């Protein structure tokens, strides 16, 4: 099977993806979720003319000439409006957020007022209607303020609550089942035997799925037998995406694809023109999409960033990442000279700083070996070298993909 380009592989992975169904969730539980439909304001904000300052609600005509002596006739505080009306020569003591009483059309700030009992004297400054937040100053009933596909964060939560929502229509989280494979793997915290290593990739991949809005389920570690693989894959029932890590190549011990095919998986491809991550498998098992990631730690994380993240976002109906991975790329400046690239897209781990001109400047980490986790942990972006890219001197513009997790 010929090597697929990254673009073609991602196109096949995302082909025919439909967003998850919507569900209604209490607003307090929606942080990190994705809106399934646009939100239209059910309330007007503010719902009345409100004071923006502590001071006195007055009639503008009464304070055009200073000093002006007025009579205080009451108070208005947030949640405790003044029930009467402000007439000629009168004022109401008012606090920030309180409803402006009828008859008043300006607020005198308290710093410009002296008082003696019920009498106040406005000596300095000017009363300003701008000290009043008029009804609907923020938004009005019927205004569409949040679009479908928007991820809900602190700002969106506050706005949606103010718009009158107690529950929000959100996409169901895609269910991502993650399976580590290999006789050499030992669970984290375990004791190593001869030739064994600690399993770590499945935790990073599951965490990446979670931070991008999915619901990750760890299936454990399958041994290199058809029986163990099949038993673990059976636990992925109901998943929207099945991730296997390791065994995605074609060696004598790579049993993942045959085991999945025996369960009905239609294999689409298993080799990509990229590094790290050449042996990446993709297929369909029922309604689930299956991604077989390489076993090397860096390869697994890089492939997850390039392929799994856009898949999750597509399942959530998020428009911020399309089927073309170039839509996610930003431009930066390389701090060092780069060698010419070969026939596979190279995702180089790199660190970024901000240059004196405000532009991002990137430096590849000390080693690009796909087994090294410590340089990956230092990196904050991937410097993308396109297929057959020529050598690039220091200062050249290069595309980068953020490791925003």
Written account of the structure:
- With 405 residues, this protein is α/β, with parallel strands linked by helices.
- It has 4 domains: 158 residues, Molybdenum Cofactor Biosythetic Enzyme, Chain A, CATH 3.40.980.10; 54 residues, Molybdopterin biosynthesis moea protein, domain 2, CATH 3.90.105.10; 84 residues, Molybdopterin biosynthesis moeA protein, domain 3 (Beta Complex); 74 residues, MoeA, C-terminal, domain IV (Beta-clip), CATH 2.40.340.10.
- It has 7 helices and 26 strands.
- Strands 7-4-6-5-9-8 form a 6-stranded mixed beta sheet, with no helix packed on it. The protein has a 6-stranded mixed beta sheet with strand order 16-13-17-21-20-18, sandwiched between helices. A 5-stranded mixed β-barrel has the order 22-24-23-25-26.
- The mean pLDDT is 93.
CATH architectural arrangement of the largest domain: 3-Layer(aba) Sandwich
Instruction: Give the C-alpha Rg.
Output: 31 Å
Q: The CATH topology of the largest domain is what?
A: Molybdenum Cofactor Biosythetic Enzyme, Chain A
Q: Which class do the helix and strand fractions yield?
A: alpha/beta
Q: What is the helix content?
A: 10-25%
The whole-number mean of residue pLDDT values reads 93
Overall geometric form: elongated
Strand runs, count: 26
User: Order of strands across the widest beta sheet?
Assistant: 7-4-6-5-9-8
Span from first to last CA?
33 Å
